[in-house]
Amino acid sequence: MQDTMLNKLDLVIRGGTVVSGQDVVEADIGVADGRIVALAEGLPQARDEIDAKGQIVMPGGVDVHAHIEQVSATGLMTADDWQSATTAAALGGTTTVLAFAAQHRSMRLSEVVADYTRRAAAGAVIDYGFHLMIGNPDPLTLETELPALIDAGHRSVKVFMTYDRLSVSDEHILDVLEIAKRHGALVCVHAENHGMIAWMSRKLLAEGKIAPKYHARAHPRLSELEAVRRVIDLARLVGAPVSIFHVSTREGVAAIRAAVGDGAEVYAETCPQYLFLTADDLDKPGLEGAKWMFSPPPRGHADQAALWQGLRRGDLQILSSDHAPYAYDDSGKLKHGPDATFKEIANGVPGIGARLALAFDAMAHDGPRGLVRFAEVTAANPARIYGMAPAKGVITIGADADLVLWDPDQHRTLTDADVQDRAGYTPYAGCTVRGWPRTVLRRGAVIVRDAVLCARPGSGRMIARQTPGL
Ligand code: URP
Ligand code: ZN
Ligand code: ZN
Q1: For residues 388 and 238, what is the distance between their CA atoms, to the nearest angstrom?
Q2: What is the rounded distance in angstroms from the CA atom of residue 242 to the CA atom of residue 102?
Q3: Where do the structural domains in the chain lie, given as residue ranges?
Q4: What is the pLDDT of residues 91-101, one digit of tens each?
Q5: CATH class belonging to 2-59+393-453
Q6: Which pTM does this prediction carry?
Q7: How much is the average pLDDT of 412-437?
Q8: Cβ 324 under 6 angstroms from ligand 1
Q9: Which residues is 58 bridged to in the sheet?
Q10: How many angstroms does the Cα of residue 275 sit away from the middle of ligand 2?
């Protein structure tokens, strides 16, 4: 590094333990023009200084699965808008989010993207991009709008294999995979077998089994396995990569591992709700269990162990939130009143704020390997797979200075009262985590200081993405 550059540092983050790629080093980080320009001990004094002694400096979290200011598969608007969701994200240590531009049945995709772009630009306090969610795969969408939007830099596409209002046929998934392959985008999939879920739900309702706990029974484990295998085979037919969202079962992980062993290009994520919750959480009096209802549902302890193993082995590369917030009142979970069946309750849980603290607690206290793995699954891998590297996801020279200073000794018990998003509750209430993000920087600007937000709504930027892939 030239001395002239070192003399022009805007900021030095001094004396922290820095998790940089595969290394954990004691180093200062020099920042100029919003980028990391130096990583070494003993950097010269800069205009601004942040003391990071005793703290762990991680790359800003990259959350590639969040539903923000979006009409859901059941037709309900999420509780959060762009400002509230990204505020909760920033306070939790996330500096980049990929959410959805959600096309429903009769909508024009280009108008949907324009609308989401306008709303995100007004509210976001962190950097962002969109997955193009295809719910109306008509010729205009597939032949004209989708290719143009991918070429414009929206380099991922989402399809649902279930939900009446959003699912698309295998034939249309093949179309989407082919277009995505040709134009350089990654297709992400909500993989559950629609027929199995509809059939199970009908039977349960006919037997009067309507409580939230039956949501878990209505989504049999086989429905995930069948759909995961099918969509991988659809992708293989086309010769395209595919990304499987929110893997919940042991069998799902095994199917992905087997397919990759067989040469398929498959990426996969899981989410905190599958690592820390089980189907038993749905079993509460009245409709209380609705707070833990999401799809696929939480499973059992053996599944949790398999998902952790999948993350360690790299079968699952990403830990996302699948933040889908609905308040526990008549604007959200209780919209259909006190006698609602499990089929009438919105699916989804908040998690954009809690994702990193839960993962840090579970992964980052086991020495350097745990710190590196945490950084990989929460930042580096999602950034790489979704075309945001090298700017996002790693602490390296040339990357955006998206940085989080974690205090490993701060313990916090998660409570509904402390929730920053607008769901108004957390499914993790009562969990105590070791470690908290005290200071968060986005492109070199402090956006969270001592766990308080100091960023202007609209200061987040849309990310120019490259063709995805590891
Ligand atoms: O239950 C969930 N995950 N709701 C959000 C929509 C989805 O399935 O991704
Ligand atoms: Zn989903
Ligand atoms: Zn989702």
Answers
A1: 25
A2: 19
A3: 2-59+393-453, 61-360
A4: 999 999 999 99
A5: mainly beta
A6: 0.98
A7: 97
A8: yes
A9: 404
A10: 16
